[in-house]
Design brief:
By secondary structure, the protein is α+β, with helices and mostly antiparallel strands. It has one domain (23-242). It contains 5 helices and 16 strands. Strand 2 (34-36) and strand 3 form a beta hairpin. Helix 1 packs antiparallel against helix 5 (231-253). The chain starts with a helix and ends with a helix.
Length: 256
């Protein structure tokens, strides 16, 4: 009877584990964020995934002076936008058609996503900033993925700094560019696909308009990440299997 019970528990845990690997987390940047330092350069937005178990902090940056400086982030119904120092006040940014999302006109705008733990960085979605003129806009993206110690690690840094493993106390980030073309619909960027099918692990995603060409304008709309079953779960499975093995041995020995 005990043997059957152990088998049933083991099967249940294995089945549950198979369904939970990997665990996916979805973040929506169109609403629900909590802002600190509202309306000023260096403000931060905090979001939780749809299951309220993982957290991401989003900070905004501009590199008009070749190095990263704090910018002002704002949340719209289509996602997060950025107002950098070259674009003036936040009110001025939101009122202009050409500078309210993430763009590459008056210096590049960037958003840095810093997750609460290291994860597989799966996908993010950008929504074109069509403005009041409601015209198709470029959605070409440059992004960096990897690990950083904190959001302030990029203050005063360059893109080259972020891809150097010894810079800023980080583990090095990898830079990618994606040509999403011009349209009036959202574009999803498959981080793993862009990386050639290999998982990209880290706690940081730095997302901006293309650094290779101009005319790109969009909002950061959403992101997804994933983590495998915690190691503790597999250790528990191993322990349970060992316990079952010992029980079987004891039962066989008692037969003599």
């Amino acid at each position: 009877m005990l043997r059957k019970a152990l088998l049933l528990v083991l099967a249940l845990i294995v089945t549950t584990g198979a369904q939970a690997a990997p665990v996916s987390y979805s973040f929506d940047f169109t609403s629900g964020g909590t802002e600190s330092g509202a309306g000023s350069a260096g403000n931060a937005w905090t979001y939780w995934d749809s299951g309220a178990t993982q957290e991401v902090t989003v900070t905004s940056w501009g590199d008009g002076g070749a190095v990263f400086a704090a910018a002002t982030g704002h949340q719209q119904s289509t996602g997060l936008g950025v107002c950098n120092a070259s674009e003036g006040t936040l009110a001025n940014c939101i009122g202009k058609d050409n500078s309210r999302g993430l763009d590459n006109t008056a210096g590049n705008d960037w958003v840095l996503l810093l997750f609460s733990s290291r994860m597989a960085l799966n996908e993010f979605t950008v929504f074109p900033d069509v403005g009041s003129k409601n015209k198709a806009q470029g959605r070409d993206v440059t992004f960096l993925a990897g690990t950083l110690d904190s959001a302030n690690d990029i203050l005063g840094a360059t893109l080259a700094d972020l891809t150097t493993s010894t810079a800023l106390g980080g583990l090095g980030m990898v830079q990618f560019s994606v040509n999403n073309g011009k349209a009036m619909t959202a574009a999803s960027v498959d981080v793993i696909g862009v990386a050639g099918g290999a998982e990209v692990w880290g706690n940081a995603l730095l997302i901006g308009a293309s650094v290779e060409n101009g005319g790109d304008r969009f909002y950061l709309n959403a992101a997804t990440t994933a983590v495998p079953i915690p190691a503790a779960a597999w250790l528990f499975l191993s322990a349970l299997a060992g316990l079952f093995g010992r029980f079987g041995a004891v039962k066989r020995s008692s037969a003599f």
